Amino acid sequence: MGRLVGRALEQRQCAEAQALLQPLDDYWDARGLTQEARGWVDRCRKTIEGADGAPPDFASAAGALWLFMVVSEANRSLNAGALDSAEAAYQLIRRNLEQSAAGSQNRLLAVAYHQLGMVAQQRGALEQAEQWYRIALEIKEALKNQPGLARSYHQLGIVAYLRGELEQVEQWCHKALEIKEALQDQPGLASSYCLMGLLAEAKHDENLALDWMVRCVALFDQFPHPATGPGPKHLARLTAKLGMSALQSSWQRQTGKTLPPQVQAAVEQMIEESRKEQNE
Questions:
Q1: Is 69 contained in some domain?
Q2: Number of domains composing the chain
Q3: Which domain holds residue 278?
Q4: Which of 37, 49, 127, 187 could form a disulfide with 28 if both were Cys (CB 3.0 to 4.6 A apart)?
Q5: What is the pLDDT of residue 101?
Q6: Considering Cα of 68, then 69, then 73, then 79, what sign does the dihedral take?
Q7: How far is CA 110 from CA 18, 105, 247, in A?
Q8: Residue 176's CB: how many other CB atoms inside 10 A?
Q9: Mean pLDDT of the chain
Q10: pTM
């Protein structure tokens, strides 16, 4: 695959190169091959950027390849907690997109603003994060980008949660939930259900919090499922406080079924592991 990509780049067949690099990018992320990924990003940029380092026209295949590779690298930096590198990349993307005459790039510009909000949020700069999310939200509303709107609503809910603005958390979460339910976005629903559970717990309603966590983890047959994020851990934590009978009752209420034995066993194991960690 690498030889094919190299040949495509040498011949400046950018669309073909991107078609090959997209599955490779998933492979690098799955295997944690950050150095290899970064090497290909550098190679692509060296091939298609101008002598002054300017990216190609974003309306071209070369421009699409540049955006794909630079955005992917920025996302890897963000996920790794390398916030300075992530911010520098997102700002580079933002500046070049703002200068582009291609109106079709507004969707990607909204992504850049949203990701800058993520960087600010991880730094604890919540006001700045909210500002970026709201700028992204304006574009997504104009484009009627429903999945994008749901992501912005969700992140604004998290920012409000971190500020302790519980009523605003609920408002943003319900906006996100409405879209995610319409789209049948199970991973998105899982994150919203989990946040609603934390909101209920912050309001001192632990039984409702448990109900939301059950809804989160019951979206998938596998337990724990990667798409449910911290939901299973919160489920186990709440069960440790309320008791296994509370989980059994909640599961019956939320799913109409009895608590699967394998889920109960997994929760019990998580509770036991947590107790051991606390006693160490």
A1: no
A2: 1
A3: 187-280
A4: 37
A5: 61
A6: positive
A7: 22, 9, 40
A8: 26
A9: 95
A10: 0.88
